[in-house]
Amino acid sequence: MTPPTLPDDAWWRTAGDRIQTLLDASSSGGAVARERAEQLVREVTDLYGAALERMMGAVLALQPQLADRFASDDLVASLLLVHGLHPHDVELRVAHALDTVRPYLGSHGGDVALLGVADGPDGYTVRLQFQGSCKSCPSSSVTMELAVEDAVCAAAPEVASIEVVATEQHPDPPVIPAAALMSRVRQPTAWHPVPEFSELSDGEVGGFRVLGMTALACRVGDDLYAYRDRCPSCTGTLAGARLSRSVLRCPGCGAGFDVVHAGAGVGGDGHLEPIPVLVRDGVLSMAVPQEVA
């Protein structure tokens, strides 16, 4: 039975976790029981995969334009990925994934360019170049990389590595090794569902307690932004702050910050510390530092 607290899409997207839990539980019956349970899952998956392949072949032969319709449905697309039946190739899926996070990257004063996707013996390698990141925000590059990695891995699980090519004016070596990038991105954060953020209306600011950390969330138009509850100018709380257009004013010292552009200070007041907020598995989620989680 579907719990009433979860949307249908989110419930089905978490089916893999529930299946894995059942498989783990089967281990209590010994190695043979575990092996039989895994074989049962493989048989059922292969059966439905074979039927899905025939259905996709028949449908797309009659109406090729439905390929985009299937690809745009996250739940359908995820099942097609499992069976290697997704109608779009890896490069197109990666490009679409980057489009979904561009509004978030723009809030950090940056963007990302897809330089190419190469197939190798261990899987696909995606080459990216970050552009125009907010120089005054030290956490901006890490949060941007986190958003991009999450989107790319969800859209193209065949991707084995991500290479970030530095811009020409950057003094560092031309390529950041994928392993180094992933260790920087993955270690400090964990994702936590925050569906309550979506209840904010345009121009509204709200303080939320998430795993012991206070986050300040606000909505500008259709976009949500989240920041740590700390004014960099007076170091006080931002509780009671008001939003005018895209500028958040500290109730204590009056300093202003542009929430749409990485929390950059208006007139040199420092910058807020941004917190990534993305839709993951159909649920609005926030990146929480590991020491807090």
TrEMBL record:
Q: Does the keyword Repressor apply?
A: no
* InterPro entries named among the record's database cross-references: FSCA_dom_sf (IPR034904), NIF_FeS_clus_asmbl_NifU_C (IPR001075), Rieske_2Fe-2S (IPR017941), Rieske_2Fe-2S_sf (IPR036922)
Q: Which domain of life is it from?
A: Bacteria
Domain Rieske: residue ranges? 191-286
Q: Name a biological process GO annotation.
A: iron-sulfur cluster assembly
| Key words of the record | 2Fe-2S, Iron, Iron-sulfur, Metal-binding
Locate the transmembrane regions by residue number. none
Q: Which Gene3D superfamilies match?
A: Fe-S cluster assembly (FSCA), Rieske [2Fe-2S] iron-sulphur domain
Classification via PROSITE patterns: RIESKE (PS51296)
Q: Where is the signal peptide?
A: none
Q: Name one GO molecular function term.
A: 2 iron, 2 sulfur cluster binding
Q: Which PANTHER family match?
A: IRON-SULFUR CLUSTER SCAFFOLD PROTEIN NFU-RELATED, NIFU-LIKE PROTEIN 3, CHLOROPLASTIC
Instruction: Give the UniProt family note.
Output: Belongs to the NifU family.
> What does the UniProt record say this protein does?
May be involved in the formation or repair of [Fe-S] clusters present in iron-sulfur proteins.
Q: What is the designated name of this protein?
A: Rieske domain-containing protein
Species this chain originates from: Mycolicibacterium holsaticum
